Amino acid sequence: MRSPFRRRSATDLSPPAKLGAFLILLAWAFIVLFPIYWLFVTSFKTAYDVDKGPFYIPFVDFQPTLSAWRYILFDLGNDTIRPYVNTVIVGLSSSVIALIVGSLAAYALVRFTYRPRVGIVGLFIGSFALATIAAIAGAPPSIAFLSGLAVFLILAQTVGRRFVRAFGNSDIAFWLISQRILPPIAVAVPLYVLFQQVHLLDNIAALILTYVATNLPIVVWLMRDYFASLPRELEESAAVDGASVYRIVRSIVLPISVPGLVATFLIVLIFAWNEFLIALVLTSANAQTMPLQVAAQNATRGPQWWAMSVLIIIMITPVVVMAVALERFITRGILVGALKG
């Protein structure tokens, strides 16, 4: 049997280098996997085992028990199922919507040229600000915003033509990703006031809208780079054959973009699945998600690590399964089946 550390070519690593790389990877695997193992083991411990530990090996260091699982799944019952269902609905819905809208925006930024004038953008912001001030001052919101729209259209047709400087596609993309620079705590209170006024507090619709808005820049930024790497010749050949833009996107761009779409979907899904602060501010009972339920186990007697471990295992399992199931799409060739015969 050939040794895996044997040097096969002049450009191959030497046996000591291979051994060192193997040990580094082994150590990194331990760092990554041990927290998962510790989480799993803790879920079968009692409060006494957690407090008097650490105990590492079941049936050797301690006697495992299903008391924590029974408490979470049966004693709490609906208090576990409701946040879990909310997390699934909010996470999947917001991720799919953000992926669809963000991918279309990213493709448009790569394949089309936009030159919005700086002055027109400034006039729109100013008109919107005036309408908002008027609505706050007591004017009917519909009249205030219709008036602001009328002011913007008049100024755009008169003063707006005098502005020459314009933004480019790169400026638009940078503006989108810059929305992620703002810390979530800075928008938490404004979001609370906004959804309070429209009576959407403690509603999963508020979480879906917020998560779509926060994850949209990530989708646009990632898919913009991905679409830019696709060969333009494929789309040009289809356009010569008479295909419309929608047909090109549906039949050519999307099939060869599956790896990027899947990877981006998983990234935004993880962001939405684990989000805590916005869910804490916008929900109270009916729309709570799993991160809040995990944090709720920090009771007056201190953190109930055994219950937290069960909830975290339940929480991360769907994402892990989904990542394993979709891994095959990520590793598929980018141009499989895309070339015409």
| Average pLDDT metric | 84
Largest sheet: 2 strands, antiparallel
User: What helical percentage do the residues reach?
Assistant: over 70%
CATH topology of the largest domain: MetI-like fold
Residue runs with pLDDT of under 50 for 5 or more positions: 333-341
- Return Rg in Å: 27 Å
Number of E-type strands: 2
Q: What portion of the residues fall into strands of 2 or more residues?
A: under 5%
Query: What general form does the structure show?
Result: globular
Structural class: mainly alpha
Number of domains: 2
Q: CATH homologous superfamily of the largest domain, by name?
A: MetI-like
Question: What is the terminal separation in angstroms?
Answer: 44 Å
The ordered string of helix (H) and strand (E) elements is HHHHHHHHHHHHHHEEH
Q: Strands of the largest sheet, in order across it? A: 1-2
Using the 3D structure, state the CATH architecture of the largest domain.
Answer: Orthogonal Bundle
CATH class categorisation of the largest domain: Mainly Alpha
Helix count, DSSP H or I runs of 4 or more residues? 15
Draw up the topology in text.
Layout: H1 15-42, H2 47-52, H3 67-76, H4 78-111, H5 118-137, H6 141-158, H7 169-178, H8 184-197, H9 204-228, H10 232-240, H11 245-256, H12 258-274, H13 277-282, H14 290-295, E1 298-299, E2 302-303, H15 305-331
Antiparallel strand pairs: 1-2
Helix pairs in contact: 3-4, 3-15, 4-9, 4-12, 5-6, 7-9, 9-12, 10-11, 12-15
